[in-house]
Amino acid sequence: MNDKLGLPVGTTLDRFIMRKQEDFPFATGELSQLLRDIALAAKIVNREINRAGLLDVTGAYGQQNVQGEDQQKLDVIANIRFIRALRNGGEVCTIISEEEDDAIQTGNTRGKYIVAIDPLDGSSNIDVNVSIGTIFSIYRRTSEQGCDGTMADCLQPGVNQVGAGYIIYGSSTMLVYTTGNGVNGFTYDPTLGEFFLSHPNICTPKTGKIYSINEGTYNFFPEGVKQYVQYCKDNEYSARYIGSLVGDFHRNLLKGGIYIYPSTSKVPKGKLRLMYECNALAFIVEQAGGKATNGSERIMELVPTELHQRCPLFIGSPEMVDKAEEFLKAEV
Ligand code: AHG
Ligand code: MN
Ligand code: MN
Ligand code: MN
Questions:
Q1: Which of 62, 73, 95, 254 has a 20 to 30 Å separation from 291 between CA atoms?
Q2: Does pTM surpass 0.90?
Q3: Does 240 score more than 90 pLDDT?
Q4: Cα separation values, 98 from 13, 16, 55, Å
Q5: What residues does the Fructose-1-6-bisphosphatase class 1 C-terminal domain cover (predicted)?
């Protein structure tokens, strides 16, 4: 039996990646291997998360990251796991991570790729058994192979991504990714230790009835965002906010909806990080027919100037993002 893509039901992630590579006869397979490395680290992190309450890995690590956030133990563990897998894989010359002050050189100077990663997203939800995630972006280096990746390699705009994805450790664990030719989702079967294709060719609804924003900071929202939130209420939309970007994004991607992390008078650039969070999800949502902006500009066209830079995010069903932008425009 074949699914909508003509692939046999029961397609594993490995087989799917292999099939895709066959479409590109001149490809060397390094990107495919990189995706497999990420999947391997995801399985390991998934195992740690599942047993978090039994192992001594919940709670704070006792240090702050460069963003000024208190790191959780699992933030640190996930960071180590992904870096180790990418270093061992050999395809990546440089990694940038939410949890690291500076770029990490893997020593694989012939590696063609740069990876930007949020190793554990939604870390405030670890200790309370709520969905968390991992987010990654893959770029091709622009410098010559044979030496470390440069800052210019790391600071590429989102339009240069050759791949992006996320893992959601939720009621089931899923890996969702794109290499610029649609979005596919894989569900993890822990009994077999394999991801299986479960959500082929994900397309997000044009519009929806879910809005996701931390309304606790309403008083500090720009006027246009306040008005859009009021519009959502007037139209009896459902408010859904987990506080794990991956979880909120994944739900809205499948059901239709909008996620907003706006600039506020307290945090003028918002909270989310362009390189580790916004770009990857922007690539995925666009590939699924959605939209991602900072309120006026396309996320993927923003030119980064620093590794840990933040930006406001309006992401989801295209008609909903357009509507929110209308309110923002009317404000000025
Ligand atoms: P991280 O755990 O990687 O630091 O990311 C946390 C982010 C994101 O997952 C979530 O949507 C957002 O922070 C929640 O922020 P607020 O608590 O300010 O709403
Ligand atoms: Mn964090
Ligand atoms: Mn995050
Ligand atoms: Mn994180």
A1: 95
A2: yes
A3: yes
A4: 26, 29, 24
A5: 205-328
Residue of minimum CA distance from atom 1 in ligand 1: 121
Please tell me the distance from the alpha carbon of residue 94 to that of residue 108, in angstroms, as a whole number: 8
Q: Are strands 210-212 and 258-261 parallel, antiparallel or unpaired?
A: parallel
Q: In 3-state terms, the chain is what percent helix, strand and coil (to 5)? A: 35, 25, 40
Q: Is 99 in the pocket of ligand 1 (CB under 6 A)?
A: no
Closest CA to 41 of 76, 85, 106: 85
Mean pLDDT is lowest, of 58-62, 93-97, 235-239, for: 58-62
User: What pLDDT shows up at residue 113?
Assistant: 97
Separation between Cα atoms, residue 211 and residue 192, nearest integer Å: 36
Q: Which residues pair with 133 in a beta bridge?
A: 121, 168
Given the cut 0.95, state whether the ipTM is greater than it. Answer: yes
Burial of 274 by CB count in 10 Å (0-12 exposed, 13-18 middle, 19+ buried)? buried
Q: Which of the ligands is closest to the CA of residue 277?
A: 3
Give the tokens for residue 132: 């968390």
CA–CA dist 34, 228 (Å, integer): 40
Q: Which of 167, 262, 178, 252 is nearest to 213 (CA)?
A: 262
**pLDDT-based confidence at 21, cuts 50/70/90?**
confident
Contact 211, 197 (CB under 8 A): no
Query: Does 244 belong to an annotated binding site?
Result: no
Could you report how far apart the first and last alpha carbons of the chain are, in Å? 56
Mean pLDDT, residues 170-187: 96
Residues 6+ apart with CB under 8 A from 216: none
CA-to-CA distance for 267 and 282, rounded, in angstroms? 21
Place 55 in a pLDDT band, splitting at 50, 70 and 90: confident
Checking phi first, is residue 127 left (phi over 0); if not, alpha (psi -120 to 50) or beta?
Answer: alpha
